[in-house]
Design brief:
The complex is a heterodimer of chains A (338) and B (364). Chain A has 338 residues and is an alpha/beta fold. Chain A has helices spanning 6-20, 44-48, 60-72, 91-98, 101-104, 134-138, 151-163, 212-226, 244-254, 269-281, 305-308, 312-320, 330-334; strands at residues 3-5, 24-28, 53-55, 76-80, 114-119, 144-146, 168-173, 180-182, 197-200, 205-209, 231-235, 238-240, 257-264, 290-294. Chain A has two domains: 3-182, Thiamin diphosphate (ThDP)-binding fold, Pyr/PP domains (Rossmann fold, 3-Layer(aba) Sandwich), CATH 3.40.50.970; 197-334, Rossmann fold (3-Layer(aba) Sandwich). A seven-stranded mixed beta sheet of chain A has the order 3-2-4-5-7-6-12, sandwiched between helices. In chain A, strand 6 (144-146), helix 7 (151-163) and strand 7 (168-173) form a beta-alpha-beta unit. In chain A, helix 8 packs across helix 12 and helix 9 packs across helix 10. The radius of gyration of chain A is 20 Å and the shape is globular. Chain B folds into two domains: 3-331, Rossmann fold (3-Layer(aba) Sandwich); 332-364. Chain B has 15 helices and seven strands. Chain B has a five-stranded parallel beta sheet, with helices on both faces. Chain B has a two-stranded antiparallel ribbon with strand order 4-5. In chain B, helix 9 links the parallel strand 2 and strand 3. The longest helix of chain B is centred in the first third of the chain and has 26 residues, at 37-62. Chain B is globular, with a radius of gyration of 21 Å. Classes of the chains: A alpha/beta (338), B alpha/beta (364).
């Protein structure tokens, strides 16, 4: 298998989508000859023409609103929001129309479109370039919300998103754009859309993560192994639809769970996951479900961001709090006695 | 941009008018052709039906049959001309106040009122009639119209999209973004501003300091015009020119119609708090239905019998609507889960079962 970066995998996915479906249109700010500020659309205008991949005026609501009309007219727009925080002007279009048109029309009008959003921090970006905005989208019924953690997933999840009959907010972890890994882009081995995967099997506790936090969780698991702890890592891949089954099966096996997210924690996706695990796995849990997240502060300036971002240490600290030293009697709990 | 190009975009300094308030013809600029007589007769019939539909809908709110109704009484020339300027292949992007336009487009009035009756958010099949769902978030539909116009242009179809928007809507960012995008892409879209002088309670003077809202097009390179919105002949003539301009590949066109919302914002609003009766009386004199009737009768295009027949048709339209709206509908409560996604997520399936159990328990 070739080794590719996530940026290359995304570019290949867009390229293949343009090749396979003439309804696919790619547009946004600087996605044309420049190839996007992250070069994800590099070469697409050159190879497929300005009719298929083109620049728009600088207005995010305009880009998404135009995509709504184009999708109603039979196209499959794939639009780029240049940065997470620059997508906010489009929020009304996304929340009031993109998410609702199918429902509003009783299924008569579908909106197959993809809104690509480079998101998250850890890249030394200045203010407004590092937000983790997944919760806004995940909280909006009608949207699917996807975030890959590996180049291979980036390719296949983006292909799936473009082919999906529903609108997809596709969140690309900026921090992972240049991370490389072996990736099968020719023949699919990746899991289906909507399914989480176990990235690393383990017996002692489950780390549930998505997007940029998967890498942190993997590194934490490696570090924990040196201390004799065997951690399982579950990568959600799609936040919506949410794969309860895979997460629950893992936590029932391990009996302990830490949810890891880069975003600020309050009212975030991690809170939803923790609640779902607790509701479904109560009798399998030997310790409270813990969350590891960014702090509830506006994203800090570049020189301060490392203090905010949940890293391996914060994850390991949480794992330590999973009461391994005070292991309750699981048989006692399973009898349900007080 | 040359001074000549700018002049070519500018609206006329006063609203285009073909017929004055007394129903007499006045001289209009030669660049706008008078619509065919038969189309004017059809427009008259639709305006009579439209007004009756409107008063019937307001009455239905009082009987509790509609949750709310935003009336367009007084705006019938705009409502009808907007639709009659379009062909079957063209798309209309209406707002919540444009129910009369949808009726004139030939939609089933019960399906039009589905939103306001509260049965569902949209009662008709948009693609079948080429009418987008009536839009509530202001000016957002103007971008959709631009996208649809761009879709038709790219597919080589000769369709045009027309977006209706109000005076208040022209203050929204999406209105400006749409004008800009449409001009850059030369999308075949017509922006039709019904300036009815009020955004709920806020009068035009508090909304915009532009010489006229039509001037908002010029900065974007959009050809613009303003028209007397209570003169059906003028509105139809200018909109037909605008649609042909767009259809001919010359890009978007903005038309502002000066009209007046005779009723309050909705049945739930009290217009007495922000405008006086004298103003309403003044606009009554400019009534678009009476004006067209006088004009057509003066030209011998409409007889007393025609007027009577139009009234009878409107009454039977209203009676039929009343009867159908008075029939109770039964909602399938579980349908709220059915159209969120093409396939419900596992979580929605679970929630559907939860509600089903709740409902079954209530029944037993």
């Amino acid at each position: 298998m070739p080794t590719v970066s996530m940026a290359q995998a995304l570019n290949t996915a867009l390229r293949d989508a343009l090749r396979d479906d003439e309804r696919v249109l790619i547009f946004g700010e600087d996605v044309g000859p420049l190839g996007g500020v992250f070069r994800i659309t590099d070469g697409l205008t050159r190879d497929f023409g300005e009719q298929r991949c083109f620049d728009t005026p600088l207005a995010e609501s305009g880009i998404v609103g135009l995509a709504v009309g184009l999708a109603m007219g039979g196209f499959r727009p794939v639009v780029e929001m240049q940065f997470d925080a620059f997508a906010y002007p489009a929020f009304e279009q996304i929340a009031s129309h993109v998410a609702k048109l199918r429902n509003r029309t009783r299924g008569r009008l579908a909106l197959p479109m993809v809104i690509r959003v480079p998101y998250g921090g850890g890249v030394g970006g200045v203010e407004h370039h590092c937000d983790s905005s997944e919760a806004y989208y995940a909280h909006t019924p009608g949207l699917k919300v996807v975030t890959p953690a590996t180049p291979e997933d980036a390719y296949w999840l983006l292909r799936d998103a473009v082919a999906d009959p529903d609108p997809v907010v596709f969140l690309e972890p900026k921090k992972l754009y240049w991370s490389k890994a072996e990736a099968g882009l020719e023949r699919r081995a990746a899991a289906p859309f909507g399914r989480a995967v176990v990235r690393r099997p383990g017996r002692d506790a489950t780390l549930v993560a998505y997007g940029p936090a998967v890498l942190v969780a993997m590194e934490a698991a490696t570090a924990a192994a040196e201390d004799g702890l065997d951690l399982e890592v579950v990568d959600l891949r799609t936040i919506v639809p949410f794969d309860d089954e895979t997460v629950v099966a893992s936590v029932r096996r391990t009996g302990r769970c830490v949810v890891v997210q880069e975003a600020q924690g309050f009212a975030g996706v991690g809170a939803e996951i923790a609640a779902r695990v607790q509701e479904r796995c109560f009798h399998s849990l030997a310790a409270p479900v813990l969350r590891v997240a960014g702090f509830d502060v506006p994203y800090p300036p570049p020189k301060l961001e490392h203090a905010h971002l949940p890293g391996v240490d914060r994850v390991l600290d949480a794992v330590e709090r999973l009461q391994f030293g005070d292991r309750p009697d699981v048989r006692h709990l399973s009898r349900g006695a007080a | 941009m040359s001074a000549k190009t700018v002049r070519g975009l500018l609206p006329s300094s006063a609203p285009i008018r073909f017929v004055d308030e007394s129903g007499s013809a006045v001289k209009a600029p030669a660049k706008y052709a008078a619509p065919p007589d038969e189309l004017l007769r059809a427009a008259y019939r639709w305006m009579v039906v439209g007004r009756r539909f409107d008063t019937q809908a307001t009455a239905l709110t009082k009987q509790g049959r509609l949750a709310v109704y935003p009336s367009s009484r007084g705006q019938e020339a705009c409502q009808v001309a907007g639709v009659l300027a379009l062909r079957e292949q063209d798309w209309l992007f209406p707002t919540y106040r444009d129910s009369v336009a949808l009726v004139a487009r030939g939609l089933d009035p019960v399906e039009v009122l589905t939103l306001l009756r509260g049965d569902w958010h949209c009662g008709y099949d948009p693609a079948a009639v080429r009418v987008a769902p009536q839009c509530t978030p202001l000016a957002t539909q103007v971008l959709h119209a631009t996208g649809m116009a761009e879709a038709m242009r790219r597919k080589g179809e000769d369709g045009v999209a027309m977006a209706f928007v109000g005076d208040g809507g022209t203050s929204e960012g999406d209105f400006h973004e749409a004008l800009n995008f449409a001009a850059v892409f030369k999308a075949p879209v017509v922006f039709f501003v019904q300036n009815n002088q009020y955004a709920i309670s806020v009068p035009l003077a508090r909304q915009s300091a532009a010489p006229a809202l039509a001037y908002k097009g010029v900065g974007y390179g959009v050809r613009s015009e303003q028209v007397d919105g209570n003169d059906l002949v003028a509105v139809l003539s200018v909109l037909r020119a605008a649609v042909e301009h767009a259809r001919g590949g010359r890009g978007p066109f903005l038309v502002e119609a000066h009209t007046y919302r005779m009723d309050a914002h909705t049945n739930a609003d009290d217009a007495g708090r922000y405008r006086d009766d004298e103003e309403v009386r003044r606009w009554s004199a400019a009534d678009p239905v009476r004006r067209l009737e006088t004009y057509l009768r003066g030209r011998g295009l409409l007889t007393g019998e025609d007027v009577e027949a139009a009234g009878v048709r409107a009454e039977s339209f209203a009676a039929d609507l009343r009867a159908r709206m008075n029939a109770d509908t039964e909602a399938d409560l579980l349908e709220i889960f059915d159209h969120v996604y093409a396939e419900p997520t596992p979580q929605l399936r679970e929630q559907r079962e939860l509600l089903r159990a709740e409902l079954n328990a209530q029944e037993s």
